[in-house]
Amino acid sequence: MFQVPEETAIRPAMAIEAMHAYSLVHDDLPCMDDDDFRRGQPTVHKKWDEATAVLAGDALQALAFELALHPYGKFGEEKSTVGSDTQRAHFAFMLAMSAGNGGMVKGQALDIAAENAKEPLSLDDILDLQAHKTGKLIELPCLVGPYFTNIPDLADHHSTERMGLYGHKIGLAFQIADDILDVEGDAATVGKAVGKDAGAGKATFVSHLGLDGAKRRAQELVTEAIECLSIYGDEAETLREAARFVISRQS
Question: What reaction does this catalyse (predicted)?
């Protein structure tokens, strides 16, 4: 859609996925969400041990920045194909901001603090928490296209704003869908324990909006996300399908 060559896009994509994988490994730890299964498979600390899970997550985070800053799209190349030095450095900065204290880690800290709070989180509190914990790392890949494109008309702030808003909305819809699956899903299909939020008395989108209200809000967000893509025509169809999948998934 933004006509970014594969050799330019591959390492930023791998960097984001490495950061995402690290977050899941650490999120499953007993000191965090304490999950034994992820997509139907034993989590890293259950299959091996906690020390291995911590180190695996650390290694994946380091790998993310190695990939973000690497100048070659393919191994063995001698000519830079992944943007300029400035572009790669700024992308690494964006990755750090999305994953660190201004993004995912902040959201996780808010989530942990909420478990011991005297009062359940308000809906606004949940929106803030999830915008950081889930949203920031979903927004980032949506910005890579306009950031690395060489086509001026596609690199302007309007494209960046539209794609960032698209990512924000599907990130929020994704979390609402997660809350719905925690109520309606079964562990075998979802691939992890369900009913944990209600069992812990945790405030969620479902507890605030009701099950039907949460489903309506998720659908509204997907519709709004798709509207952000209107100027891109048929080239954005894959992103439209991705937005619809966010709330139709069963795991």
Answer: isopentenyl diphosphate + (2E,6E)-farnesyl diphosphate = (2E,6E,10E)-geranylgeranyl diphosphate + diphosphate
